[in-house]
Design a protein that fits this description.
Layout: E1 2-8, E2 25-26, E3 29-30, H1 31-40, E4 47-52, H2 61-64, E5 69-72, H3 77-91, E6 97-102, H4 110-119, E7 125-131, E8 150-159, H5 160-163, E9 186-189, H6 202-215
Parallel strand pairs: 1-4, 1-6, 4-5, 7-9
Antiparallel strand pairs: 2-3, 6-8, 7-8
């Protein structure tokens, strides 16, 4: 059994809108609706769980009528993930693999979801990564080789029963793969270039431009 988790608990303080940024409109639709579309289009996922503040459900009729499961968000991201994991263990103990999506990542596709979930048959974790293209600095002014580092993002997929024994909400990083033993197998995907995660309000206009260009 494969399960999609959509993380939609953020409040978006840096975005400066009158509602959480995942419910702001992108080309006339709430941002989260594009993620819902991708989840609905998956051919290998069996269930979708949305982690969110229940009071926000009226921001998206599409989400409200999706037929997805819902779990309450926590104070921090790892707390919200625990909420999703608890829901899975209580309701879907047969779950084999999960993929975690961000509600503010509107360019995810059904094909990418299916590719990641399929790869968990071979790997314990599949991680979206981006190369560091600028100079890499630190406060001690020590020289660093940027080729030894990379940025990680959602989506990320895991063999659930491999991840869950090592999961803790007190881990100092939000990157789940680093909670797993080093010997677990990890696939790093550097090919999802246009993985825009909305953080600031000006990025909404950029996302509209990119989406309109793609639609042409």
């Amino acid at each position: 059994m494969n399960i999609i988790i959509i993380m939609s608990g953020g409040v978006g303080n840096r975005f400066g809108a009158d509602r959480p940024k995942q419910y702001c409109h992108l080309n006339g639709r709430p941002v989260i609706d594009y993620v819902v579309d991708a989840a609905k289009g998956s051919k290998v996922a069996d269930k979708v769980i949305v982690v969110m503040d229940p009071s926000c459900i009226d921001y998206s009729d599409y989400l409200k009528n999706s037929g997805f499961d819902f779990a309450p968000n926590g104070k921090e991201r790892l707390d919200s993930l625990k909420s999703a994991f608890d829901h899975i263990q209580a309701n879907y103990p047969e779950c084999e693999s999960i993929i975690i999506l961000d509600a503010v990542g509107p360019f995810v596709t059904s094909e990418l979801i299916d590719d990641y979930l399929t790869k968990t048959k071979e790997y314990d974790a599949v991680i979206t990564c981006q190369k560091i293209t600028g100079a890499l600095g630190n406060y001690d002014y020590d020289p660093l080789d940027r080729e030894q580092y990379y940025m990680t993002q959602s989506p990320e997929a895991f063999r659930f029963k491999t991840l869950i024994p090592h999961f803790t909400t007190t881990f100092p990083s939000q990157e789940l793969a680093w909670q797993m033993p080093k010997e677990t197998t990890k696939y790093l995907n550097f090919n999802f270039k246009n993985n825009l995660k909305l953080t600031y309000d000006f990025e909404l206009k950029y996302a509209e431009y990119v989406m309109n260009e793609k639609n042409k």
